[in-house]
Amino acid sequence: MSTRLATGGRFIDRSQPRAFSFNGKRLRGYAGDTLASALLANDQMLVGRSFKYHRPRGVVAAGAEEPNGLVNLGKGQHFEPNQRVTTTELFDGLEAESQNHWPSLEFDVGAVNARLSRFLPAGFYYKMFIHPRSFWKHIYEPFIRASAGLGKAPKSRDADTYEHFHAHVDVLVIGGGISGLAAALAAGRAGVRVLLIEQTAHWGGRAPVDDPQINGLGAEEWINSTLQALEEMPNVQIRTRMMGAGVYDHGSVLCYEQLTDHIGPKDGPRHRLWQVRADRVITATGAIERPLSFAGNDVPGVMLAAALRDFVVNFGVSVGDRTVVVTNNDDAYRTAIVLKTAGLDVPCIVDARPAPTGELVAEARALGIRVEAGKGIAKVKGGKRVTAVALCAQAGEGAVLEEIPCDAVAMSGGWSPVVHLWSHCGGKLTWDEAGAMFRPDPDRPPTGADGEGFVLAAGTANGFLATSEALADAYAAGQIAAGIKKGKGPSALAPAEEPMAPVWMMPQGAAISLREKMWLDYQNDVKVSDVQLAAREGYESVEHTKRYTTLGMATDQGKLSNINGLAILSDSLGRPIPSVGTTTFRPPYTPISMGAIAGAARDGLFQPIRKTPMHGWHEANGAEFEPVGQWRRPYAFRRNGESTEAAVHREVKNTRDAVGLLDASTLGKLIVKGPDAGKFLDMLYTNMMSTLPVGKCRYGLMCSENGFLSDDGVVARIDEDTWLCHTTTGGADRIHAWMEDWLQCEWWNWKVYVANVTEQYAQVAVVGPKARMLLEKLGGGMDLSKEALPFMQWADGRIGDFDARVYRISFSGELSYEVAVPAGQGLAFWEALLAAGEEFGVMPYGTEALHIMRAEKGFIMIGDETDGTIIPQDLGLSWAISKKKDDYLGKRAHQRPHMTDPNRWKLVGLETTDGSVIPDGAYAVSEGVNDNGQRNTQGRVTSTYMSPTLGRGIAMGLILNGPDRMGELVEFPKIDGTSVTAKIVSPVFYDPEGEKQNG
Amino acid sequence: MLTLTCPYCGTHADETELAPGGEAHLKRFGPGSSDEDFEDYLFRRANPKGVHFERWRHAYGCGKWFLAARCTTTLEVYGTYPAQTTEPPEHILETIAAKRPGWSWEADT
Ligand SMILES: [Zn+2]
Predict the structure, then answer these.
(1) Which residue ranges form the domains of chain B, and what is each CATH number?
(2) Which position among A9, A219, A880, B85 has the lowest Cβ density within 10 Å, counted as fewest Cβ atoms?
(3) A161-287+416-486 CATH, one of 3.50.50.60, 3.30.420.100, 3.40.50.300, 3.40.50.2300
(4) Residues whose CB is under 5 A from ligand 1 (ion)?
(5) pLDDT tens for residues A568-617?
(6) pTM here?
């Protein structure tokens, strides 16, 4: 059984017990435990089920690489799935639940999948579930959905807060093991700004477990003295519980700091996402031990050798009473020595190498531990727990020589440097034959803006597994990163190790029955036999094999499985490992929370909201808002008890019958000024703006160089060299930028300035037959008569107490004055209009009434009638395209064959025969079906409304040859299976002669 | 998350301050041009594994458009310069040539 030892445990404080629960069971651990060590101390070896076969899974590692121990953590608003038990620090009241099992962890129905395993081979998604198509919806998908999935998605809103930090440093050192400390020390001594971060709560990494002598000190002593030195340097900052998540262009590094996860829910930010900009980045991220591929290597109790001794030394936890060590290298002997020294039984060290002779081997032998050389494990016995191992010759096919009862297996297939962060931004790897590992190629680092490498791998992460070499390398990396000459760093003394021997399969000639039980990817259930099958089926690229078998695609991203998997693939393909290569290392290094990514950007801070000067009035008077660009515009003003629809219809009728007010302040207002402003606007608009007389307004269209309609609005000529261009609400910033682009990059010698004055003015549309009476009542002396200020003209003057610019423009078809006043006067002006308008029945109206009125009048709306594929000619707007101009943006495009195709769908009005409303986005069908068996189409609806004015459904749509088919009927199927018939009519439903707007 | 120096205001700007504008030094073709020239202008873009000239705007800074010469594989920046030019300035070309023997502006366009 796994249990707490009577003594030992560097990290734990036995005077401080911690209560926690696992699957509802109340358990106890100590301060300093991880959830993994606390579970193991309570003999809870089984921690989860695998993804595909629901096999029992136990803790296999002791750090961030753990693939199995994933739990749902916390409750309610603090719930989070897929948390690794090995990196979760224990606190009082922690609640964890295992994942991917039903109904219970001990008895799992899904485990039946395991018995079906021969039907779930590599690529089973592709093979099994293709035919017949109809099975997808009712059989395959429900099956996959029921059996797949790890943690549950949180159901409640996240109660925690998160924040973002930015930092600029000269040298960022990622990893606080002895290599990271040495690198930071070297850089710190050179005087540059250093940030040193460590993902765990502890400094020194694994060194204190193996305790090499450094500079004549014990490892822990050296670590403490180094930390003290770093803390005394004002130019050095150090932080724990902060992970380097990703390395990006030009020294940009994303770091993830966990502030409160180790103490449980608490006020203040939980996670912090750091955007660090570093001149140089040192990755001192250590190495990860590799599993060995033998049959039954996934049975709970089989663990990485170093993890097993980490649990003993760091947490005083023994994983088993009798542990068999299986290895291809000397390092695993340390585990045997630690266990034996702790009074535990190590019946045998199984070493695949024919004749191990190193210092550590001798030490183990001297402790009386039996060493079986040239041997391997044929299979592990046991279901939810190891009960024995069967030994065989490594060189053979797996004939069992002997069975050794045990309850734990410590395996070591060698070490892989953690090269993720080196690789994120393009650092290349080289294959190290002696260590059978990929290591950073110092000649091909990720390069920065200056063309020089900006990432330096250091120590073990750089492939230097021996302590003395790692320290020397890391110290030198610190100096190079700081831009100083290399000097002598700390020296270390540790037992010399003999070379490891690559072992990718155990035994070497294992039969298929064994290979089907050798797990490569524990979380996704990928076995040696799956990768071999993929190779036989023709998968040669490691990237394709990964996706076909799902190797390395789980939440651990293959930290344990990738090298073993690609070694199997390369063997199956008969190609050397480096020529097969690795899959791409992608950030983040381990999963980071969605909350941290969002940071403070939620609720009111999600996006800044732009408000007009009258926004507060709207809020106080029943406005329902809708987002338009970054603005919120009133959609309708509901009165007591009224439905939104009723409010909209009331607003339309009141505007048509009496007078309505629209807050039009959001409309874009761009001043274009200069001697060449007219010439410039002639290029930007399809029609002629240079000839517009001062005092007049003209409706204009803007197209992209592709010819597609991008914005529209009314342009007013202010004086000889000044124009004011109205844009759509959402288009103001885009069109301003568009103008700047052409002025700065194409016509830079033209004398034109553009200023965006959108927010300088509040603008109110006073609309309806009583609009003039209302404005005249306010007084001020402006002549607003038809004669003095006719339609499509503007004038400056006084209205009441306000300086006003009045435009006679109309987007509703009614008599309309759009009045601009200084923004600071907007609210007062609005309120003055409401007060004066009371006797005329004035009411504010919202964007929906605006939309309906413009549709009744047949005016197009950018974004409804246009979608980035529509040219003005499609919309019957050829009258707004100047034939006199040699050039304008989009003119050449309008001459392309597809643009002049007479079969382009064109804008018409649509009037339903039964008076109903055509559904938004509906298509008009024509005879026959297409290749997919769908009805052929001949048009679509672009705007559709119930018209309160006409009392019937009206719509605008684009129809094949539409303008030539007036009076014809077209059919629009609805999603309920019925359809609606509409007559093709003119899009101008209301006042086609324009008598009202001109009045 | 690259960084570029704005040649107008001198700010060493983070990518979050900048707006990308695609390939630089395109020649505009308007009315009267051939279909081929016009389509190239609209749609054909260099997609080099190597030296690339790009348009960037210091959108959340001084608002100016500028041009950058950059390597798409090494991420090296050879220089930035004002947008009011139809071809890269001499000193930029010299910098690139020094770093990339054998490369020439004509060969890439
Ligand atoms: Zn700038």
Answers:
(1) 3-108 (3.30.2270.10)
(2) B85
(3) 3.50.50.60
(4) B 6, 8-9, 58, 61-62
(5) 999 999 999 999 988 899 999 999 999 999 999 999 899 889 999 999 99
(6) 0.91
